[in-house]
Write a structure and sequence with these properties.
Blueprint lengths: L16 H16 L7 H22 L3 H24 L5 H28 L4 H23 L8 E3 L3 H17 L8 H15 L4 E3 L12 H16 L1 H25 L1
Antiparallel strand pairs: 1-2
Helix pairs in contact: 2-3, 2-4, 3-4, 3-6, 4-5, 4-6, 4-7, 5-7, 6-7, 6-9, 8-9
Subcellular location: Endomembrane system
Pfam families: CDP-OH_P_transf
Enzyme class: transferase
């Protein structure tokens, strides 16, 4: 009995090997390609913080030192929000971390140094610009060391004065002096000491509380709530003086901690 030759279904054996390999390689390369683009929301906050730092420099060049100091504080608020927004929305990325460091260098390194130099240190000549440079290079080294120590240090403490707090000390003193009618030339010698010391504190090994372990969801005594309300009222009444005092006290607290440790 004669059986007609039935068509044989096409299998991988019938496909040339070169075509199989090329298709497989192409699919693997497509899967390995990283996703392009950046996350918009957290980087918008970082860009806004960078803009505030840049505006601070422009305002100081125009002689608007109060606006320059306030812009640095606004940059601090925005810098604190971008990381929290990234964690809440799960949009952390290596690009965002690097971009944030570059923005911090402008807002908390270059801007405070130039504002302080324009406001008070310029008449001192070489002493003035050297003091401003010490602060700027201290901020750069601080940010570089912070990036290399991520994940290897105790989250409860910062090693060295954080750059936003250092910027707040310089900007707070300028803002408070301007509000009190004190010109920069009158306290130029004080600023020539304050600015470089603040820069050196950023690269020191002094421990500062980060308050990252603060439990805001837990119960607290009623007195704590009253103190928080009182602080907010004081900030509303005298924002320049209160903010300058708070951050100057924070800067001294690390040094006093060393003294108390030695006394114990």
């Amino acid at each position: 009995m004669k059986v007609d030759n039935m068509p044989v279904e096409e299998t991988e054996k019938d496909i040339p090997k070169d075509e199989v390999d090329s298709d497989t390689t192409e699919s693997k390369s497509t899967q390995k390609q990283p996703r392009r683009g950046v996350y918009l929301l957290p980087n918008l906050f970082t860009t806004a913080a960078l803009f505030s730092g840049f505006y601070s420099i422009i305002a100081a060049m125009d002689g608007n030192f109060t606006q320059a100091a306030v812009a640095i504080f606004i940059s601090m608020v925005l810098d604190g929000l971008d990381g929290r927004v990234a964690r809440l929305t799960r949009t952390q990325s290596a690009f965002g971390a690097e971009y944030d460091s570059l923005a911090d260098m402008v807002s908390f390194g270059i801007a405070p140094a130039l504002v302080a130099f324009t406001w008070a240190l310029a008449p001192l000549g070489k002493v003035g610009w050297i003091a401003a440079f010490i602060y700027a290079v201290g901020a750069a080294l601080r940010l570089a060391r912070f990036n290399t120590m991520i994940g290897s240090q105790d989250k409860r403490y910062f090693t060295g004065l954080p750059s936003p707090s250092a910027a707040a000390i310089v900007a707070g003193v300028i803002w408070a002096a301007e509000s009190a009618g004190v010109a920069g030339e009158q306290i130029a010698s004080i600023m020539a000491l304050l600015v470089p010391v603040t820069g050196l504190l950023m690269v020191s090994n002094v421990k500062y509380r980060s308050f990252k372990d603060l439990n805001l969801k837990g119960r607290v005594p009623f007195v704590v709530l009253l103190i928080a309300v009182l602080v907010l009222v004081l900030i509303a009444l005298e924002p320049a003086l209160v903010l300058a005092g708070v951050f100057c006290a924070y800067g001294l607290w690390g040094l006093l901690g060393i003294v108390f440790k030695q006394l114990r």
